Amino acid sequence: MEIKAQAEEQNPGHFNYARLLDMLAPPLIVTIDGSGGARAVIKKHWPDTKIQRCLVHVRRNILTDISHHPRYLAHKALRKFAYQLTHIETQDEAREFIARVHKASVTFGPWLKEKTYRSQVKATDIPRWVKPSQKFWFTHRGARRSFNRLNELINDGTLFTYLNPPEGITCDVKSTTNLLEGGINKQLKDLARAHRGTFDEHQRIIMDWWLYVRTENQVPPLQLALEQDFGRKGEQKAQAAWAKEEIKRRGHADGRPAAYDTGIDSEWNPSLGVRKGWAGRG
Q1: pLDDT exceeding 70 applies to what percent of the chain?
Q2: Average pLDDT over residues 186-203
Q3: Beta strands, E only, 110-267
Q4: Which CA distances in Å does 221 have to 58, 201, 229, 249?
Q5: In a domain, 188, yes or no
């Protein structure tokens, strides 16, 4: 318990991933979107599980780094790699792709190493992502990041796992998370958006039921009702959430002012898709 508590304090994302993995049997292969937390926890808790990186996410990351209309030769080469990546169907094509990436990395290597020094540019021309203590930065940051990402995935063996799946796989291995993103995640996001006026606890219950009715081996409804004391536990949580929000809105009942709430919430949140609002509230 002490180890888990320490892990949660240091990295809540890793802790939550670990809790989820502890409840599941290790699969032969898993396709991930690129989250560093998921990758690290999977390697630790499922050491024998093969990892496939979602190729659509890799392509999206590259195009974000270089834009869809590049001017530099290195950027144009990366854009070509991005579009080729999701159309590789054989191991021979994968080997050719890896060879082209390696050749491009060598060809553009000196260009990717170019640096910009703070003393050489005006203060107004310094990128916002540069730290105050930095004396220099890599000039072609986006292209360098994309080449490093491709080479890291190639060396890690997670780019084309779907072409050489582990023994025991009896179905086609997906090279992307599109089925999950479009089939489940989008439905949940749309559900949260449609009910954005509800409290966090209410949204969680709504999503729980959406997932429950689509579960293959469902727990009997009576058992669920007993575990939740026939809704009383959920009601208590909802009332507590409402009281917390009322304090933020109107202050304390004894006249004390509400806590400062004009800044960014400092509490860790695992999703950027959380929907909140006051629609339908009296």
Answers
A1: 83
A2: 84
A3: 115-117, 136-138
A4: 41, 19, 12, 37
A5: yes
Single-letter amino acid, residue 30:
V
Query: For the chain, what is the domain count?
Result: 2
In percent, how much of the chain has pLDDT > 90?
A: 40
> What confidence score (pLDDT) does residue 161 get?
93
Mapping DSSP to helix (H, G, I), strand (E, B) and coil, where does residue 240 land?
helix
* 36-45 vs 12-22: helix crossing angle, rounded to 10: 40
Pairing mode of beta strands 50-53, 29-32: parallel
Domain containing 64 equals 2-163
Please state whether the predicted TM-score (pTM) of the whole model is above 0.85.
no
148 dihedral zone (left: phi>0; alpha: psi -120 to 50; beta)? alpha
pLDDT in tens, 121-134: 999 999 999 999 99
117, 136, 163: which is the final residue of a domain? 163
Of 51, 31, 64, whose CA–CA distance to 176 is shortest?
31
Q: Is residue 58 pLDDT above 80, yes or no?
A: yes
Nearest partner of 207 among 223, 222, 196, judged by Cα = 196
pLDDT category of residue 169 using cuts at 50, 70 and 90 = confident
Cα gap 201→243, rounded to integer Å: 13
The answer to whether 201 and 192 have CB atoms below 8 angstroms apart is: no
| Residue 212 region by backbone torsions, left for phi larger than 0, else alpha for psi between -120 and 50, else beta | alpha
Cβ neighbours for 28, distance < 8 A, ≥ 6 positions apart: 49, 50, 165, 166, 168, 169
Cβ neighbours for 146, distance < 8 A, ≥ 6 positions apart: 61, 62, 65, 66, 78
Residue matched to tokens 């050491």:
47
Contact 206, 191 (CB under 8 A): yes
